[in-house]
């Protein structure tokens, strides 16, 4: 299994992309939209999306999103009781920068993290908890050391 995020739409306040989960034969297991910050960088404590590249995955057991994800909100429980949200990292973006994959709808819901949604509009994504549930159901009890996230920039339009 591998994850691919292709950034496509540079908006005024965010970047919207396509997020896919692929099996070992490149078949699509799940796809949705992503939303990230409009500016990029590796500095800590800034609202910046991470640079394009290949990222490792590790569960972030101390995140406040774990408790939130285990609650039913709008009929959706994102995480299983014994699961945790995923943190991405590589040599340029350390684990302790805490870049997570989680739910939210606009750039106000992210501080560099990757948000997922089933729908998109000009500056937001929708049905985010549903998208995250589908991702986390696929990742549940998987050995994340064998799964990578590849992020690429292929901007189609600029605003």
Short note summarizing the structure:
With about 160 residues, this protein is mainly beta.
Provide an overview of this structure:
There is one protein chain. This protein has an eight-stranded mixed barrel with strand order 1-2-3-7-6-5-4-10. A two-stranded antiparallel sheet has the order 8-9. It is 11% helix and 39% strand. With 159 residues, the protein is mainly β.
Order of helices and strands: EEEEHEEEEEHE
Compute the number of helices: 2
Give the end-to-end Cα distance, rounded to a whole number of Å: 34 Å
Helix content: 10-25%
Structural class: mainly beta
Topology:
Blueprint: E1 2-10, E2 14-22, E3 28-37, E4 53-59, H1 64-69, E5 86-89, E6 99-102, E7 114-117, E8 119-120, E9 125-126, H2 128-139, E10 148-158
Parallel strand pairs: 1-10, 6-7
Antiparallel strand pairs: 1-2, 2-3, 3-7, 4-5, 4-10, 5-6, 8-9
């Amino acid at each position: 299994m591998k994850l691919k995020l292709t950034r496509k739409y540079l908006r005024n306040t965010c970047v919207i992309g396509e997020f896919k989960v692929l099996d070992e034969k490149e078949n699509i297991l799940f796809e949705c939209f992503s939303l990230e910050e409009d500016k990029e960088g590796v500095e800590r404590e800034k609202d910046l999306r991470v640079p394009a590249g290949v990222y490792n995955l590790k569960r972030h057991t101390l995140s406040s999103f774990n408790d939130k994800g285990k609650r039913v909100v709008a009929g959706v429980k994102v995480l299983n009781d014994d699961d945790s949200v995923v943190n991405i990292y590589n040599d340029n973006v350390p684990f302790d920068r805490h870049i997570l994959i989680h739910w939210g709808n606009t750039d106000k819901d992210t501080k560099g993290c990757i948000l997922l949604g089933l729908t998109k509009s000009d500056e937001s994504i929708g049905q985010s908890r549903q998208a995250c549930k589908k991702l986390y159901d696929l990742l549940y009890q998987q050995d994340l050391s064998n799964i990578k996230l590849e992020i690429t920039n292929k901007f189609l339009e600029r605003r």
